[in-house]
Every structure is written in structure tokens, then in C-alpha cells.
Design brief:
The protein is of the alpha/beta class. Helix content is 45%, strand content 13%.
Length: 420
């Protein structure tokens, strides 16, 4: 069965959504792709993203674990690195400021793992990779990476020429970057750049430490992307791009772009926009590959997953997040498309597309439950199952247990979606 090409585009779209929502095979809904593969009984991952706000005390952790277990969830993705800080025992990053009221001996990740084991829950360490600071409020700890290595931070195209005139070690450099970020409504904060080898080394070391030091079930990457295609125009990143491209340039081009002035460096990226995009994507891919290698060398059994923008083409274009390549090269074990739409048809399309792209790899459907009623969340869970997702992840425990939702939200979802 197929959709006649003579139908109007909007009608074809409605028919496609209807086919998906009815649970037909992907071979029908997406034109010859693999059949649906429902997770075997008892193996479905029923997870919650747990933000760092629920890890600030033993009491908060206890309440969170009990609530998740009693509601039928079996997996916790706990945010142990939120903004370049640590909710675990770390030698390379400062202890989170929110843990100041607790004794130094309090280790939120260790406490979560211990209690989760008692309740039969699996625990994955959720790590924000490139996002390391709010743009609104800079970190308190002077040992934070933004103070120690400001040259590793991404720079937007708009700020490239201005900030290049400031000494990177001057407080003015970080201050100007933070002010720009604060005024940008679509940028979450300050990001480390995967173009810088030192920044990649730093992240990989953190993941290696987590894998070596904690009895985890998995490592989960988030913010493993660029804020947008207008980043990273830092002088160091542009200089790296020139060195990367130099062997392919003609003699006149080498002479033209030989200088170290920003006009030439930015100009090279403008003359070769496709190569500039490919270069930045490849550096992010290298980060993911190195991270996986470190984690698997430590603990081969750990699941290595990543939260991604649901449309792989859009993700690669607007966030330089080429997760299709990650899948095709076995760089991740599980892909978690963040299908946070309010529209049920769009959600179905996003999960169906991710399931098709993932091939033999697992898909955990990321559901933006914080935007949905409990009945909408339940419907999305059922849709994800029909489309062959091996698991679901709700964002987030914290938002679903606070007003206007409250404690009943998770239990309602559990009774309706997880009951035998």
C-alpha cells in the first residue's frame, strides 16, 4: 500500500500520520523500510530524565527513587554534570554549588545508585557535554572550566571580529562572551568547542572517570551539539580549519588566506561553507567516538546513549549533530530522539523516522511530558511502542512532580502505561 502521488501534499501528510498512528509497519508508512520490532516483554526501558535539582540531598534522592519505582519506571538518567560542575566525586571539575549545604562526603551519584539498586532500578549517568555554563549567571567556583580555559569556548559569528581583539586570558573576554549569550534568546549558555583538542580531552576524562568509578548501567550524553550553525568562530577554531583545508588549496588560495588576521580566517569559512560545516561536524563526531572508546574500554557492558534532535537532517544542518553517522558507525548504542512536540501526529512521524534511521540500534523515545497532560503522555508511550521503540524516556521527573502536575502524574502514567 502506498500514498498516491496525485494527492495534495497536506492530504498525503494526513494519510501518512494516520498510517503511523494506526501502528502499521514502517514498510507501509515509510515506503519499504524495515518492519516494526517491538521490545520483548519485560525488556522495555521505562526511564525518567532526572535533573540535578533532585540530587541535592539524601532526602530528595530517596523521594525520587521511591516515586520512580512505585510508578513502574525501571531506569533513571540522572544529571550528574549540568553546567560544567559535578554531582559526583570529581577531581577535574568543581563540586556543584547546590551541594554546599551537604557534607563533602555526600556523593549524589553514589547515593542514587545504592538506593536505586534496592528498588531494582538501573542508573545511567546523564552528562551535558558541551554546555558548561549559564549565560545569565557565571559559575561561582574559580576552578570552573570557563575561567581556566576560556579559549575552549565557542564563539558566534556575530562576535568573531570584536572578541578576537580581546586577550583571551583577560576577564573582558569571558565577560563579553557571557553578555552576548545573555542577550541571545535562542542560546542556552556557554559551550565548549569540540574543535579544541584540550576540550575533548577534558570531556573524555570525565566520562572515563564515571565509567571507572561507579557501578553504572550506562552513560547518557546530552548537549553533544553546537548551539547553532553560527558557532564556532573563535580564532583558534578558524585557525584549525585553515590547517585542515590547507593541503587542498591552490597556490594562490594559500597566499590569499596565509595571514592570521580574522578577515582571512572568517573569509575562508565563507568561501568554503560546505567544508566548514563538514569540518565542525567531523570534530563533534570525533568527540563522540573518543567518548565511546573510553567508556567501552573501561566497561564494555555500559550502554552508551545520546539525546538528539529528532530529525537527523535538521540536526546535522542546524546543530551540526550528525547522529545518523553515529548510528551507522556504531558510535552509540541507543539514540534518544527528543520528540517534545505537542502534536501527536508529529510525534509519531519523528519516532517512526528515528526508528527507520536507527536500523539495528535501539531507540528510546524522548517524550516532553512536561508539556503534556498525563493522558497525552500515555498516548505517546503507546504510539512509541507501536512504532517499535525499545524504550521511552520522560522529561522530566522534576517537572512532573512539581505544580501544576504533582505526585499523581507519574502514578497515573504508571497505572495506565506500565501495568501488566
Amino acid at each position: 500500500m502506498s500514498t498516491p502521488s496525485s494527492l495534495r501534499p497536506e492530504l498525503r501528510g494526513r494519510i501518512l500520520r494516520a498510517l503511523i498512528l494506526c501502528g502499521l509497519g514502517l514498510g507501509v508508512a515509510l515506503g519499504g523500510s524495515p518492519a516494526l520490532r517491538a521490545a520483548p516483554p519485560g525488556s522495555e526501558v521505562r526511564a525518567l530524565w532526572v535533573t540535578r535539582g533532585s540530587l541535592v540531598s539524601p532526602e530528595a534522592i530517596s523521594a525520587m527513587v521511591r516515586s520512580a519505582a512505585s510508578s513502574g519506571f525501571n531506569t533513571l538518567l540522572v544529571q550528574v554534570r549540568g553546567r560544567g560542575d559535578a554531582y559526583f566525586s570529581s577531581r577535574s571539575e568543581p563540586r556543584a554549588a547546590a551541594l554546599a549545604p551537604q557534607p563533602v562526603s555526600f556523593d549524589p551519584l553514589a547515593a542514587t545508585i545504592a538506593l536505586a539498586r534496592e528498588h531494582g532500578l538501573r542508573v545511567h549517568a546523564w552528562v551535558n557535554v558541551n554546555l558548561v555554563s549559564s549565560g545569565t549567571t557565571l559559575p561561582l567556583a574559580r576552578t570552573h572550566i570557563v575561567y581556566r580555559k576560556p579559549e575552549w569556548l565557542m564563539v558566534p559569528r556575530e562576535l568573531a571580529f570584536e572578541i578576537a581583539r580581546i586577550d583571551v586570558r583577560s576577564p573582558q573576554y569571558l565577560g563579553r562572551l557571557a553578555r552576548w549569550t545573555r542577550a541571545a534568546s535562542d542560546v542556552e549558555g556557554l559551550y565548549l568547542s569540540p574543535v579544541h583538542g584540550g576540550a575533548v580531552d577534558h570531556v573524555v576524562a570525565i566520562l572515563d572517570h564515571l565509567a571507572a568509578s561507579y557501578e553504572l548501567d550506562g552513560i547518557h550524553l546530552d548537549y553533544v551539539r553546537y548551539p547553532g550553525p553560527q558557532f564556532d568562530y573563535s580564532r583558534a577554531a578558524l585557525t584549525e580549519f585553515r590547517a585542515y583545508l590547507l593541503p587542498e588549496l591552490s597556490g594562490p588560495e594559500r597566499a590569499r588566506f596565509a595571514g592570521s588576521d580574522m578577515a582571512g580566517l572568517v573569509g575562508l569559512a565563507q568561501v568554503y561553507p560546505q567544508r566548514w560545516g563538514d569540518f565542525r561536524r567531523s570534530r563533534l563526531n570525533t568527540l563522540v567516538m573518543r567518548a565511546r572508546t573510553a567508556v567501552k574500554n573501561r566497561r564494555p557492558s555500559l550502554l552508551f546513549s545520546a539525546a538528539v534532535y529528532p530529525d537527523p537532517v535538521e540536526a546535522a544542518r542546524t546543530r551540526l549533530q550528525d547522529w545518523r553517522t553515529w548510528i551507522e558507525n556504531d558510535m552509540i548504542d541507543v539514540v534518544c530522539p527528543m520528540a517534545y512536540t505537542l502534536d501527536a501526529g508529529t510525534f509519531a512521524q519523528q519516532i517512526a523516522s528515528a526508528r527507520q534511521v536507527a536500523g539495528g540500534q535501539s531507540v528510546w523515545a524522548g517524550i516532553g511530558a512536561y508539556r503534556l497532560s498525563s493522558s497525552q503522555t500515555i498516548d505517546n508511550i503507546r504510539t512509541a511502542r507501536r512504532l517499535g521503540a525499545e524504550g521511552i524516556v520522560l522529561f522530566s521527573y522534576d517537572s512532573l512532580t512539581r505544580p501544576p502536575n504533582g505526585a499523581e502524574y507519574l502514578s497515573l502514567v504508571g497505572r495506565a502505561a506500565f501495568a501488566p
